[in-house]
């Protein structure tokens, strides 16, 4: 079951961004999903579901928001390599 979030925005905002209403609303959903993923609050799968796209497309579009697909510290990388 899906819940719905309603956000009020000026009617002129999509035009100011040179987007249709649908394009603006899709971008807003994607931006929210990316930010929650970046903050490590949700998984990439859940973020993709929130954005309304598949996980692969979500991951491939992260670069548009300057967010890394994998955000490991140097210690985590070294540990992963040692345990491989």
From TrEMBL:
Pfam families on file: UPF0175
Source organism, top-level taxon: Bacteria
InterPro entries: UPF0175, UPF0175_domain
Position of the signal peptide: none
Stated family: Belongs to the UPF0175 family.
Name used for this protein in its record: UPF0175 family protein
Organism: Halotia branconii CENA392
């Amino acid at each position: 079951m899906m819940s719905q979030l309603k956000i009020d925005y000026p009617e002129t905002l999509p035009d100011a961004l040179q987007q249709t209403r649908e394009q603006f609303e899709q971008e807003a959903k994607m931006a929210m999903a990316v930010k929650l993923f970046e903050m490590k609050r949700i998984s990439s799968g859940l973020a993709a579901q929130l954005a309304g796209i598949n996980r692969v497309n979500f991951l491939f579009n992260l670069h548009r928001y300057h967010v890394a697909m994998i955000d490991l510290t140097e210690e985590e990388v070294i540990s992963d390599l040692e345990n491989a």
